[in-house]
Amino acid sequence: MKTKPNASTNGAVIQMNGIRKVYDTGKIQVEALRGVDLEVYDGELVAIVGPSGSGKSTLMNLIGCLDTPTDGTYRLSGEVVAGLRKEQLATIRNRRVGFVFQNFNLLPQITAYENVEMPLLFGGVSKRKRKQRVEELMARVGLGDRMHHKPTELSGGQMQRVAVARALAMDPDILLADEPTGNLDSTSGGDIMELFQDLWEQGRTMLVITHDAALARRAPRRVEIRDGVIVADQANGAAELLSESIEQARD
Amino acid sequence: MVVQLFLRASRVQKKRAILTIAAIAWGTLALLMLLSFGEGLGISLQDAWAGMGSDIAVIWPGETTKPWKGMPAGRPIRPRIDDIRLLRERVPGLLGVSGEITSWRTNFTYGDNSVNGPVKGVSTVWGRLRNQIPVAGGRFLNPLDDAQRRRVVFLGDGLAEDLFGSEDPVGKTILIDQVPYTVIGAMIDKMQFGAYSGMDKDHAVIPIRTFYAQYGRDRLSVIILKALDPAQMKATLAEVARVLGSKYAFDPEDERVLGTWDTVETGKIRNNILLGIKIFLSVIGVLTLTVGGIGVANIMYAVVKERTREIGVKMALGARNHWITGPIVLEGLTYTLLGGVAGLLMATVVILLLSLIPTGDSMALKALGKPTLSPVIAATAAGVLGIIGLLAGYFPARRAASVDPAETLRYE
Predict the structure, then answer these.
(1) What is the ipTM of this complex?
(2) Which of A170, B259, B276, B278 is 20 to 30 A away from residue A209, measured at CA?
């Protein structure tokens, strides 16, 4: 389903060099990212933290190929993303990236099953294989008995698990999660965090944007971003204190 | 695949969809009714003009306007009964040629009923050329009637009714200018627009030799002819002028000698006018339908707006353009075609009801004709609907494809 990163990338799923992103709003030019260098390797779990407006979401959009950088080079699994056409970007998003959003973004009028099936549909997977894969994923996130419920018939935590199943459908190179626990109560949030932990332990490469101190603490690597630049990138332990101080400062 | 997506998407907005479909149905009804009226009008005009006889030419003898072979201008040229045989023998490509001599203000008497009208002496082929169809039980003049100068008469249906009322005229004897004639047939009721000597329903027709015997006139009032191939009418008429010109010594190029009404030519003009009317009606119909199409486009724009987030999500999941645009185009097309089918059903019912209205004797109603749905009209409507449906989906779909997923998915 996916091509494994080739040897020249040294196992780097994400390679970003000098990434800049400028939003041109007509009169004012907003520089959301001001030269970001980031490498994420196969099997890593990276938490990206930072205050609102620091450029986290912009970074996530660029990594997820929803947007293209103004400047700098970006390789996803060794493939240069800059300069690709819309259709090619769509294919990359389909094959290589799985998104989990804060507000789930499930399509409301179709069932959980159909939601998870959607990326497979876009990826041109046969009906038989789609069924097999969706059932496998729904079981994996513990919703094997809720497949034919609509999102409105599910709890927040269940909806987010459906979203995770959907993100995993095409077995992407990287799972991108933007505040995955932001709209959940602490119990559901904890469930999702456990699910992420499991996925990571099974070798999944993951990048999580979060305000959640607990989640940030669990991540073996933390990248902190402020005003469009990375101010800290360190293995956990040392960063923990800093993170807590940020949390406290905000609370 | 696209169908599957469409089915998922269109579970919402039922009410809105129904309103749009109604608008398209109304537009389709308008288009179909206008086209059907055009078609019905065309058919009835065709019938009415064929009433006088189709693809014939009428020739009025006149006088010369050019000196010719030592003769001065201004000589009247009057072909006679025998010239019909001459034309039949000399002019190639003729389906038929007939003389016609008219006596106006002729008295017809049957019992106590007395009516004045024209009587025409004609060759027997005249009946075919001039579309004189007898009512069952009667017949038109035949060659024997002419050869033996029989006193037999064929009546127009109006004249027959004036003389006989509801009585069957065939076999009865009437007096024409006090001379007894046997009625051998009466004409069926027909629509007739073209006329050069009164309407056929009011006349009586007798063999041309009988006419000569009674009235002593053998100069033709008009000559009627029809070519085997209507396209050759002009050549045939030129040949007639040449043959008569050599006999009566006039310049065949002298147009005033033989005044001619070529109905093949006027028919072409008439058909062009009719085509113009049909195009005009179609344009109005298409515009009406376009209003419906704009309604569909509006709804699809609203749908796109409403589903912007959904579209953004699909894009994030890797939907290529056609996955986004396909369902929208299909949905627009579906609304349009559903409306089209509804409009077609309504039009069929309306046309059926209209056909039940009796036209009676009203010439205007008859001439307007019955709206008629033809396969061509149905195909035209289907084509127009298809194009409008595609356009109504295409533009909103293009907007959908231009949705920026990064913008849409930003959490607020």
Answers:
(1) 0.87
(2) A170
Distance CA A61, CA A64 (A): 5
Q: Is B322 part of the contact surface with chain A (CB cutoff 8 Å)?
A: no
CB contact under 8 A, A109 and B315: no
Domain spans of chain B, in order of start: 2-50+268-408, 56-262
- Contact residues for B195 (Cβ-Cβ < 8 A; gap 6+): B52
Partner residues linked to B187 by β-bridges: B134
Identify which of A95, A101, A179 has the shortest CB distance to residue B318: A95
Is the predicted pLDDT of residue A214 greater than 80, yes or no?
A: no
Residues A61, A33: Cα–Cα separation, whole Å: 12
Q: Reduce the DSSP state of residue B83 to 3 states and report it.
A: helix
Quick check: A101 and B310 CB within 8 A? Answer: no
Backbone angles phi, psi at B69, to 5 degrees: 50, 50
The dihedral built from the CA positions of residue A60, A65, A70 and A71, taken in this order, carries a sign that is: positive
For residue A219, what pLDDT band results from cuts at 50, 70 and 90?
A: confident
Nearest CA-CA partner of B240 in B70, B120, B93? B93
Contacts of range A77-86, beta carbons closer than 8 Å, 24 or more positions apart: A77/A2, A77/A3, A77/A4, A77/A5, A77/A6, A77/A9, A77/A13, A77/A173, A78/A5, A78/A6, A78/A8, A78/A9, A78/A12, A78/A15, A86/B321
Helices B375-401 and B14-50 cross at an angle (nearest 10°) of: 150
Among candidate residues B223, B216, B287, the one with its CA nearest the CA of residue B261 = B223
Of the CA atoms within 13 Å of residue B299, those in its CB half-sphere come to 29
Comparing alpha-carbon positions, the chain A residue that sits nearest to B9 is A109
Is B310 close to A107, i.e. CB distance below 8 A?
A: yes
Q: Shortest CA distance to B10 belongs to which of B375, B310, B253, B267?
A: B310
Query: Which domains are present in chain A?
Result: 43-65+84-250 (3.40.50.300)
pLDDT confidence of residue A244: 52
The one-letter amino acid code at A147 reads: M
**Cα separation, A210 vs A223, whole angstroms:** 11
Least CB–CB distance from A122: residue in B11, B323, B405: B323
Give the Cα separation of B354 and A185 in Å (integer): 69
CA angle B114, B115, B116 (to 5 degrees): 135
Q: Helix B308-316 and helix B321-355: axis angle, to 10°?
A: 140
User: Testing the interface with B: which of A25, A52, A66 to mutate, by most B Cβ within 10 A?
Assistant: A66
In the DSSP assignment, the letter for residue B409 is: T
* Contact of B91 with B244, CB cutoff 8 Å: no
Low-confidence ranges of chain B (pLDDT < 70): 1-14, 359-367, 411-412
| Contact state of B319 with A90 under an 8 Å Cβ cutoff | yes
Q: Please tell me which residue of chain B has the smallest CA distance to A166.
A: B317
> How many Å apart are CA B398 and CA A211, to the nearest integer?
37
